[in-house]
Amino acid sequence: MKRLLGIVITVVLLFTLVIFVPASAADENVALGKPVLTVLNGGVAAAADYWRPEYLTDGVAQDTTNGNALGWAYGTLKELGVATDISAYIDLGAVYSVNSAVVVPMTWSPAATYPGAYEIYVSADFNNWTKVAEAGAEPKEGNATYNFDAIEAQFVRLRATSHNGVWADDLFYYNGFGDLQIFGTKVKDSDKALHIYKNYTGDLVTAPPASSDEALGVPTVWTGFTTGSLEWRFTFNTDISFWAINFPLSWGNYGAPLKFKVTKENDETVVAEKDIVRLGDGGFAIDFGKTIPAGKYVLSVAITDDTLAAEGQYAYYNVIGHATGMLDEEYCLNTNGTEIEEAGAVELFSSDDGRGFIKLSEEAQPATQPDTEPGTEPGTEPATQPETVPQTGDAAVAMFAVIAVLAMGAAVVFVKKRVF
Q: In this structure, which topology does domain 195-358 adopt according to CATH?
């Protein structure tokens, strides 16, 4: 009877443990439907609507309800070599404990479209990044799943570091992804977000540039060609930190070499700089690989080759397009040898909350994000596994398990001492 009673109590306690201990929440694809921001250093967006950035997080390699949704694709200039620097940033919208990633190739031609190599990074603050997955140049077939120690993150960066040299035209190699899935459980809400701050309030004026602003009737910022100037200087003030500058509307001849340099307005200290080669007409973004704090700056965009195509005419030109509702000279100053009344359309990519462009006379407040130290910017973090973070519900399971063990021990003692 004592043995039977002990067995009954033990079974009841185990049954209670199974019923009342909360299970860990099931991991889900927390990237599904989340916004995607792409930066194509040395690259161009694939021209057709089949390959849009938002298709990277639609949950499928190809949306069968939308035959045009094939994934996200881009082109990289052949003459730049095998290495690429193409990134897609995903804002998960909250802080999650993430532990795995699934990279899905395009279904229509996976061998041709998969990049030669890529990396996946995650971050909780958009400043400190941890590499959680990488793939080399080996052939890839089917979905690639990467499991890693759980880490809290809100932002994801998918970075393609080389092309595969298969899908190409005369100028570009093309690569892409069908889908990127990130699995985890929600930890907490967040007030952070990826923001795009603009120096205009209206719409982009998409008419192509003429040989002069007067002929076109639309203000644009010209350098090169017959302007007599190879440099545009854009002075601005901001209350947010930023990590990239986007030019949503631009024209330029293929091969034009450009240097982008950001300096402090008061002492000309160089804060960031980058050299690129224009790939022809089209908007583009410059990712400086670091976070630049709030402050007053001068952006210099210079053509670095002064070759003449004819007397009084430079071989290269660069044009920054215009938008309606441009901020005036209280906010931005522009010169290309002479003062320009209105600026070209400029956008700042940031993870800070603020007004963005503020009046030049205002004192900028310190950035809410610290300036990124060398070695912590995306792409330089060593490939180490992050410290393990307990999954949701793990602590509760452990607590109830301890209680159950203690209760069973007490039951055994009770059975041994009970006299019938």
A: Jelly Rolls (2.60.120)
